[in-house]
């Protein structure tokens, strides 16, 4: 859209779960704090000056399907663990986009004090915004609604063609499944991945929504593995290690879908494209996913489900990443000052996924109230070979300490230079529950509070 046409639509008003936001003029410095909002911005020709990372350690938090749209730009990468309001303000944005951020009312208040901020609609659960709504909402905010509508229409037309060409999809039950530490689960019908399968004709079992409640996913006990026994199971994992863990699940072989070869395993990039569900990722995803679904539900157990289209390139990339990660070591820093050492020790203990929850109680505020979250954190750690947060610097100011730390997955650095705070009560350093919750938010796991 020509600049003069874009400018003519402003000001625009965007209604959302916290009220409404007025964008007075065409934004020139957009910060994306949603976990996948950057894709739709890039698809519509707007390169953010800052992007909140999600996962995958992609350069500038942009996955392969969006690299061409990014061009030579080098946006600042914001931490996935928490909203860094100071870092966001330092980017001097004139618009903040956070449709898929899971922001709270308090977050919105702080962000909107920096710049006009766009949040998700109140019509959906957190992280449950349909891909169409997110794209149109972002398109409206940047004055490019017409372009957003055209791209949405094109993808919807392709989905309609897929549904028409594959009658076996229509009405077939589908589980978009995951597993943490041997405990299975599935995404509810409001999750973007389940919504996409519904666009192709598949149906999410109602029991998932009943268990999920107001969340976007449902976790089962190992004894409830049979809830995954649908016409097709699409496993969403972070990598080959997760695939191996799923194949080793104790009750997986009892599922008819498994015995009849109706499982779909996604490689890293295909799973990423599925999870992002954006204007840029969906076209690439459908090329890979549809042939797999077609093979899974063709009614012939002898049909082998093909690997994802990205499988070979993803395996090569994983080998490089593993080699590079193995070359790095991350040893904890030793602090000679007693206060610094005690604060660092408390922080390390709380965020050590292998440490027993009982040992963390004294150093985590309201630990009893977040027992389930600690279990989820431990399970997430098991899936990646352990999570740890090594303090690299500690600044103590009375009974408050600011921690600078590195996040380690499986002993290798994943994110460097993160910051957090903890306080001291009755001589004991304690990590605020909010620090744990903001980290879990990056994995889209709601926190008990």
UniProtKB/TrEMBL annotation:
One Pfam family recorded for the sequence: Peripla_BP_2
Keyword Isomerase in annotation: no
PROSITE patterns assigned to the protein according to its UniProt record, in alphabetical order: FE_B12_PBP (PS50983)
InterPro entries (UniProt xref): ABC_transptr_periplasmic_BD, Bact_iron-sidero_bind, Mtb12-like_C
Principal location: other
Region (Disordered): 298-337
Subcellular location: Cell envelope
GO CC terms of this entry: outer membrane-bounded periplasmic space
Residue stretches in coiled coil: 138-165
Biased composition (Low complexity): 308-318
Residues in Fe/B12 periplasmic-binding domain copies: 29-297
Family: Belongs to the MTB12 family. Belongs to the bacterial solute-binding protein 8 family.
Name of the protein this chain belongs to: ABC-type Fe3+-hydroxamate transport system, periplasmic component
Organism: Euzebya pacifica
């Amino acid at each position: 859209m020509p600049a003069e046409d874009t400018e003519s639509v402003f000001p625009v008003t965007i209604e959302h779960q916290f009220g409404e936001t007025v964008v007075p003029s065409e934004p020139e410095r957009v910060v994306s704090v949603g976990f996948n909002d950057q894709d739709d911005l890039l698809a519509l020709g707007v390169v953010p000056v800052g992007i909140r990372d999600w996962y995958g350690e992609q350069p500038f938090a942009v996955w392969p399907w969006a690299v061409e749209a990014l061009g030579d730009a080098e946006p600042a990468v914001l931490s996935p663990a928490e909203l860094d309001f100071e870092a966001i303000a330092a980017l001097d944005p004139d618009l903040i986009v956070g449709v898929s951020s899971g922001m709270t009312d308090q977050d919105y208040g702080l962000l909107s004090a920096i710049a006009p901020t766009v949040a998700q609609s109140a019509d959906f659960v957190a992280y449950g915004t349909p891909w169409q709504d997110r794209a149109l909402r972002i398109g409206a905010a940047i004055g490019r609604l017409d372009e957003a509508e055209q791209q949405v229409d094109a993808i919807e037309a392709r989905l309609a063609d897929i549904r028409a060409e594959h009658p076996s999809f229509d009405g077939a039950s589908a589980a978009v499944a995951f597993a943490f530490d041997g405990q299975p689960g599935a995404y509810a019908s409001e999750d973007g991945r389940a919504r996409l399968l519904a666009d192709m004709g598949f149906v999410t079992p109602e029991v998932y929504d009943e268990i999920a409640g107001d969340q976007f996913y449902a976790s089962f006990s190992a004894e409830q593995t049979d809830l995954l026994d649908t016409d097709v199971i699409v496993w969403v994992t972070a990598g080959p290690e997760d695939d191996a863990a799923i194949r080793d699940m104790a009750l997986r072989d009892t599922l008819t879908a498994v015995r009849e070869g109706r499982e779909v395993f996604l490689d890293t990039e295909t799973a990423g494209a599925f999870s992002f569900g954006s204007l840029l990722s969906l076209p690439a995803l459908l090329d890979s996913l549809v042939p797999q679904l077609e093979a899974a539900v063709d009614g012939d157990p002898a049909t082998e489900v093909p690997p994802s289209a990205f499988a070979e390139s993803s395996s090569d990339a994983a080998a490089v990443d593993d080699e590079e990660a193995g070359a790095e070591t991350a040893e904890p820093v030793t602090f000679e000052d007693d206060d610094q050492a005690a604060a660092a020790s408390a922080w390390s203990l709380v965020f050590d996924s292998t440490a027993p929850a009982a040992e963390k109680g004294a150093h985590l505020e309201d630990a009893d109230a977040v027992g389930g979250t600690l279990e989820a954190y431990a399970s997430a750690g098991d899936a990646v070979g352990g999570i740890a947060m090594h303090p690299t610097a500690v600044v103590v100011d009375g009974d408050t300490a600011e921690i600078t730390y590195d996040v380690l997955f499986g002993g290798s650095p994943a994110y460097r230079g993160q910051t957090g705070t903890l306080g001291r009560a009755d001589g004991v350093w304690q990590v605020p529950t909010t620090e744990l919750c903001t980290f879990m938010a990056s994995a889209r796991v709601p926190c008990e509070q």
